[in-house]
Amino acid sequence: MTEITPFYEKQVQCLSCKNSFSTTKIRSRFVKVSRHDGDFCPIYASTDINPLLYNIHVCPSCGFSFTEDFNRYMVPAVQKELEEKISLHWTKQDYGKIRSYKEAINTYKLGAYCALIKREKKITIAGLYLRTAWLYRYSAEEEEEQRFLRLAVHEYMESYSTGDFQGSSMTEVKLTYLIAELHRRLEQYEDAARYLSKVLEKQKASTEPKIIEMAKERWQEMRGAYKEARSS
Fold it and tell me: Origin, by domain of life (predicted)?
């Protein structure tokens, strides 16, 4: 009897060059989440069974890197720009096998660069930056984590102000909370308090009690830290 492993290969077609290639994925039954950080970063029971490592599809032929969240339509002018900025400089390599954390981080950076060229929604680009920060958190590289948290919160704020998150899985309350939490992690406490206030203002009408509860917890943590700082 064949043993079922956590990993399987999925066939993907490149949105840019239309080349078909295989990439590794993880079967959901093997994924076990121990807990989540305040910015929704999942902490997995096993560091090896981490689906975030395999979120980005990297075309081995042209280098175009993307996720399921990318718009499938490719404007001809954008495709030409991708060829000029990525494909012409691409050395064929295969990210379709088991990935290390360093390799996964490289795929996210490629994905974010492609998303910027392709002019994907701010909410999509922000998600790529945030997940890159999480991978650096797993790797205990705090400086790089902070750098990508700053990039993420900037894009999330742009998404919030333009409303381009609408139609995605991100609700306004969850986005507002996430912006507040990223500001808090970056020690930008005034901005964090401003966005937490926006969340708490919506608590009576909200259908997301878990997010409201998390916002209250963050608010109490910030108040406690502020009092401690003043008394020291």
Answer: Bacteria
